[in-house]
Amino acid sequence: MPAQRSGSMWLYLRGLLYAVGFYPLTMLFAIPCLLIGPLLPFRARFKFLTLINYFYIDWLRICCGLGVELKGREHLPKEGAYVVVANHQSEWETLYFQTLVRPQAVVLKRELLRIPLFGWALALLRPIALDRSKRRGALKQLLEQGQQRLDSGIPLLIFPQGTRVPVGQMGKLNKGGAMLAVSRGVPIVPVAHNAGLYWPGNSFVKYPGTVQVSVGPAIQTEGRSVDEVHAEVAGWLEQTMREQGSLE
């Protein structure tokens, strides 16, 4: 659980220091990414463009006292395509997971690609950018583009809650990850974390502590139904989030 939440002014100043490093460096780093990235094959491009994510995680530790404890990394397949399904509580996991699953194609909201420099560089990572206002079209796009990424041997990262869900709540998990994994017969790897305890939602303040990240055993999908796979993933996520203290 997080440390006692006192000294709000000090926490705000630490958050401000983090922002002073985060935003200018992100914009500056986007420039060489846009110049060099298109010239590189995808895997080399991913390695180059996500180098800055290691800085983000270290900068959070230095400025805000926010570290990470990872368990189960050995469960991530060493090669081939697979689907990672994780809970979504904070901005933290969008930064950290780029260092955990390499390379990857992430499912995200289309609006992020419109951010000058940052969004343009993000587009080079071949994300699946969904228009969440068109639910049927979004599902079709997810399945079509997701299958293309998997067929290319690129792992997928999906947040099935679709948006950030506050600590203490589970929200509804969509079946897109299970549908994709079953359609291509690839493993699905559940990942749970409690980042929302330390970096809640859109909060400017980050609380010191250690984010717990747990990678579950790969779930095989060949010969299984979507509902069966989805239920196993959802059950593992719910149980692990309770153990981490982020779900009542």
TrEMBL record:
Pfam families per record: Acyltransferase
Domain Phospholipid/glycerol acyltransferase: 82-196
Transmembrane segments: 15-36
Keywords: Acyltransferase, Membrane, Transferase, Transmembrane, Transmembrane helix
One term of GO molecular function: 1-acylglycerol-3-phosphate O-acyltransferase activity
Superkingdom, taxonomy of origin: Bacteria
Pathway terms, separated by semicolons: Lipid metabolism
InterPro entries named among the record's database cross-references: Plipid/glycerol_acylTrfase (IPR002123)
DNA repair keyword on record: no
Name used for this protein in its record: 1-acyl-sn-glycerol-3-phosphate acyltransferase
Species name: Marinobacterium iners DSM 11526
Taxonomic lineage: Bacteria, Pseudomonadati, Pseudomonadota, Gammaproteobacteria, Oceanospirillales
